[in-house]
Design goal:
This protein is 0% helix and 14% strand. It has 83 residues and is mostly beta strands. It has a two-stranded antiparallel ribbon with strand order 1-2. The chain is globular, with a radius of gyration of 15 Å. It starts with 5 loop residues before the first strand and ends in a 60-residue tail after the last strand. The relative contact order is 0.20.
Length: 83
């Protein structure tokens, strides 16, 4: 089931006229960060070496698979994941 985990764009949703949603078949095994999990990449530029605040805006969701947790991870420059 290689390449089955992906992000899809939802038009006219969210603060910027569209939103993104991770998707996979219901019978797929749980995705693993840095292995087969879908990821989004954005170019960012930091103008200081001080700490930075990351704000994620997420829509409410319903876990329809109670045996699986819903998780989100953030990584900067392929560094450690912040779960």
């Amino acid at each position: 089931m290689e390449g089955i985990y992906k992000w899809i764009k939802i038009e006219y949703y969210g603060l910027t006229l569209s939103g993104m949603r991770a998707t996979a078949p219901a019978d797929a095994t749980a995705a693993r960060p840095k292995q087969n999990a879908p990821c989004l990449e954005y170019p960012v530029h930091f103008f200081s070496s001080d700490t930075a605040e990351i704000i994620l805006i997420a829509s409410p969701l319903l876990n329809v698979m109670p045996d699986r947790d819903i998780k989100l991870a953030v990584s900067i420059d392929d560094g450690n994941l912040f779960l």
